[in-house]
Amino acid sequence: MARRAKPNPLMTQIYSFAQEVSGERGFEVAQTLGDGATDEKIEKKTKGKLKVAEIRATLNQLHQHGIVEYTREKNMSNGWFTYTWKINPDRAMRNLLTAKKREHEKLCAKMATEEGAQFYKCRKACMKLAFEQAMELQFRCPECNGKMAYAQNQSDVKALEDKIGAIEQILSSSKSGIATSNSGLMQPAMGAKTK
Length: 195
Ligand SMILES: [Zn+2]
Description:
Helices cover 50% and strands 12% of the residues. The protein has 195 residues and is mainly alpha-helical. The protein has 2 domains: 9-87, Arc Repressor Mutant, subunit A (Orthogonal Bundle); 97-173, no CATH class. The strands form 2 sheets. It has a 3-stranded antiparallel sheet. A two-stranded antiparallel ribbon has the order 1-2. Helix 1 (9-32) packs across helix 4. The structure holds zinc ion. The site of zinc ion has 7 residues, from loops.
């Protein structure tokens, strides 16, 4: 693989998945792995921004989500193991898709309630309550005691629609090529080749 390869869309998705599960560090670390990297090499590549302990913790998180795998090699003279880490794109994508599907279901359920519900807000918008709750409070805001009135929730619905649309795009773009079975979910990388 050429070093100067354009960021490929698959890897871009995996990097942002790494960021979702492990924050900015996950994003940084994932990008340094290339064909395989030890934690010392990752430390160098991140120019000392991350301590080795942070790198290891991040790698473990990424590993738990099936994004990375490792091989280990024993140093015969001192008996220590060296771990070399790299991204497992297939498993990472399977887990990414599983996570996105779950998120999609949740958002759709939320959408159904938003669309079907009547919400009440006070003028200061301290909180948004369903009709029944607002009625129990005699349409008085528990925060500011202001009167609660029927609130349009179109902007919430729109925001949900946007999120759902973005996920659907990821899900449909993945249909070509990558298997979407759950078989690899959360499996540790113990099958990694060791020599
Ligand atoms: Zn209020």
